[in-house]
Amino acid sequence: MSLVEVIGLHHRYGPRPILQDINLSIDRGEVFALIGPTGAGKTTLLRIMDLLEVPSAGEIYFDGKYVPRSGRQRFAIRRRMSFIHQKPHVFNLSVCDNVACGLRWRREKKNKVVGKVGRILEMVGLKGYENRNARTLSGGEAQRVALARSLVLEPDLLLLDEPTANLDPVSAEKIEQLISQVARQGNTTMIMATHDMAQGQLLADRIGVLLEGGLVQTGNATDIFRSPRNREVARLVGIENIIEGVIAANTEGIATVEVGNDSDRIGIQAVSDYPAGKEVYACIRPEDITLALSSTQSSARNSFQARITQVATLGALSRIEIDCGFRLVALVTRMSAEDLDLQVGGEVHAAFKATGVHVMEKGS
Amino acid sequence: MTEIWDGLTRAIELLVSLDPEVMQIAGRSLRISGTSCLLASLICLPLGSLIHFHQFRGKRVLINIVQTLFSVPTVVVGLFVFVLFSRAGPLGVFGMFLTPAAMVIAQMILITPLLLGLTISALSGVSREMMDTATSLGASGFQTAWLVLREARYAVLAAVIMGFGRAISEVGCAMMVGGNIRGFTRVVTTAIALETSKGELELALALGMILLLLALIINIALNRLQQR
Question: Which of A137, A222, A278, A338 lies at a CB distance of 3.0 to 4.6 Å from A141, suitable for a disulfide?
Answer without folding.
Answer: A137
